[in-house]
Amino acid sequence: MQNLILYSLSNFIPETILVVTIIVCIIADLIIRKKSFAVTFVAIVGLVLSFVFVVKQWGLSMSIFSGMLAIDNYAVFFKLLFIISTLFILLFVETSKEMKTASHKNEHVYLILSLTTGAYLMASSVNLIMMYISLEMVSLTSYILAGYLKKDKRSTEAAIKYIIYGAASSGIMLYGMTLIYGYTATMNINEIFLYLSKNPITDTPVLLASVIMISAGFGYKISSVPFHFWTPDVYEGAPIPITAFLAVTSSAAGFSVLVRFFLVGFANTEIITAVKWQEVIIVFSIASMIIGNFVAVWQTSLKRLLAYSSIAQSGYILLGLAVVNSAGLFAVILYLSAYLFMNLGAFYVTILIHNKLGTDNMDEMDGLGYRSPFIGVTMAVFMFSLAGIPATVGFIGKFYIFSALINTNSPNLTWLAVVGLLNSVVSLFFYVKVLKHMFLNKPEKPLPELDYGYANILITLLLAVPTILFGLYFTPLLRLAENSIKIFGLN
Amino acid sequence: MMLENYVFYLFALVTIVSAFIVVFSKNIVHSAVALFFTLFSVSGFYVLLRADFIALTQILVYIGGILVLIIFGIMLTNKVTGAELKTRNLHFIPSVVVTGIITGMIIFLLLSTDWNPVKDPFSPNSTIKQIGFKLLGDYLLPFEIASVILLVALIGSAMYARKK
Fold first, then answer.
1. Which residue ranges make up each domain of chain A?
2. Quick one: pLDDT band at residue A487, thresholds 50, 70, 90?
3. Do A140 and B164 touch (CB under 8 A)?
4. Which member of B149, B151, B155 has the closest CB to residue A136?
5. What is the pTM of this model?
6. Per-residue pLDDT averaged across A419-438, rounded?
7. For chain B, how many helices (H) and strands (E)?
8. Which of B109, B141, B146 sits opposite A209 (nearest CB)?
């Protein structure tokens, strides 16, 4: 046993580095005792070190800690995604005026790092207990971060709403897990798959119920309908860098564990026909797209608009899972890498606007495209990418999702692609509405131009350039996605 | 075996009745006291299931820790805000319908499923040693990660509780 644990630890270095970094940050915070970039710098060093060791895990395929975690390319892909997003968020926090008003010093740094650690564990969990514990780690940190602006009533309200919905949905998820354990007598998803494929499935209601209950926990993380009620309020109340973090890292972590749970534990034609989880995913996905897109049309707050937009986006990603083959999974991975750049970018431009205007109300943004052409143009890039216009990375994501839907024959899902396309048209309407406010609406009186520092422009470009570049030259993304999904062995 | 059944039904009755008092009592202190009986008889179920360690933990954590904390919380907030400690129930009919549906579903699942029973349900020995080995063996990682979660929770609560 000792040897096994030591062996597992030697493959657990990226996570260990992050936990050590958290502790070093806490100690550094104690020594420095004021707001300082030094703590953020320690965190960045830790993340870069962890990055090096994550890259070293590329190509491995093993399970460690007695089948708790899997080390494989799929997990490595997600860990890289989390590292990139965390690095950006740390920079966002540094340049956001809103976070400067907080009375806290550097707590956000190690809270953000612990969310990343939880996300790492979520991406590699193959055991129901581990999935639950890592999900709780991400959730708990998100609750704390959502209420970071203690003096702001809306931020506190967001934290309270988040914690109540979160507690309810993880309770439902745990109940679903006990049902599966009672039926298969195991908690490892590989063993669940073996049990289900060896024994004829006679009791489908219990499996269907437990699958739906477990989806409540994961669906809450990815803010898919009907578990989305927290999303608009939390997105609106939380400080914008934190909102961006929840929208990208926490949501991608939810997808990583959801996809692994279904495609490892239940991906077999007999199990799919017996348990009918594919239909469940299709229903969630259609509901998310429709509610997300149609409610977003009426929003006047940019943050709420982005909240409904991410509900809709999680609907599109679920479409990729609903195909249940390697093409669909491939599209999910592509879409998530696109989502990283375009969503972070949209949120960062929102931060920049909020820094100058002090609001995220779209009526206040009239004529902003002329007051600061840079903000206007980059926002246009991110909005077009989120809508899926060609020559942006968002188009590549949507293209592969829809082509996976059209190319599958068992069952025929072309109608689902049509639903998705129609929804994209609706989404174009509200994404362009943001640009209409910026360029076409004239403000009542002429307003001064807005200047942004080099740091702000550089960070925006770091997100805008990949959004366009990967939209034109996407072979590296395709290669990455192709190698990330090999372990699933789907056809 | 017969005696065990009677004890089970006794515990079940106490759990359900006291849970109803928790929900419907107008006085929040009465609710807290009724919660004591609910939590205590739940630990009785664990004893009947031969899970001695979990039964003890249930008493230690829920009654010794959480319940006392709740009662302290009520006393302190009462002193600070001076608000009346009355509770009432909102949305009575919708919640009865929803809980009714969920209860019906769970009962249906319980009766209709061919459960996969645990191999050796009645071990006469204490389970503490086995749980200890499992926690530091197969389940080492979740056990250690739980401690990181506690660290995060500690940071968070300190952050919120600070005056400034």
1. 286-491
2. confident
3. no
4. B149
5. 0.94
6. 94
7. 7, 0
8. B109
The pLDDT of residue A209 is 92
Q: What is the mean pLDDT of residues A66-93?
A: 95
Tell me which chain B residues have a C-beta less than 8 angstroms from the C-beta of A5. Answer: 137, 140
How many CB atoms within 10 Å of residue A463?
A: 22
The amino acid that residue A354 corresponds to is H
Confidence check: pLDDT of A374 > 80: yes
Whether domain B1-113 has CATH 3.30.750.200: no
Contacts of A117 in chain B (CB under 8 A): 148
Return the H-helix or E-strand segment holding A62: strand A62-64
Cα pseudo-dihedral A167, A171, A172, A175, rounded to 10: 170
Q: Which residues of A74-102 are buried (b: 16+ CB within 10 A; e: fewer)?
A: bbbbbbbbbbbbbbbbbbbbebbebbeeb
| Furthest C-alpha separation in chain A | 74
| Cα B53 to Cα A97: distance, rounded to the nearest angstrom | 51
Q: Where are the domains of chain B?
A: 1-113, 123-164
- How many whole angstroms separate alpha carbon A396 and alpha carbon A426? 19
B85 confidence band (pLDDT: 50, 70, 90): low
Q: Is residue B77 scored above 80 in pLDDT?
A: no
So what's the pLDDT on residue A202?
79
Helical spans, DSSP H, in A358-484: 368-371, 373-387, 393-407, 414-435, 454-472, 475-484
Q: How far apart are CA A444 and CA A428, in angstroms?
A: 27
Residue B105: strand, helix, or coil: helix
- Name residues whose C-beta falls within 8 Å of residue B164's C-beta, 6 or more positions apart in sequence: A103
Task: List phi, psi (to 5°) of B122.
Answer: -110, 75
Spell out which chain B residues touch chain A, with contact meaning CB-CB distance below 8 angstroms: 105, 108-109, 112-118, 137-142, 145-146, 148-149, 151-153, 155-156, 159-160, 164
pLDDT at B84 over 90: no
Within 8 A by CB and 6+ apart from A164, the residues are none
Question: Rounded to an integer, what distance in angstroms lies between the CA atom of residue A352 and that of residue A365?
Answer: 12
The yes-or-no verdict on residue B37 having pLDDT over 90 is yes
State percent of chain A over pLDDT 90: 79
- Contact criterion met (CB < 8 Å) for A182 and B113: yes
* Rounded Cα gap, residues B82 and A368, in angstroms: 50
In the block, residue with structure tokens 């949305």: B91
Residue of chain A with shortest Cα separation from B118: A185
Alpha-carbon distances of B16 from A389, B22, B34, B103, rounded to whole Å: 57, 10, 10, 13
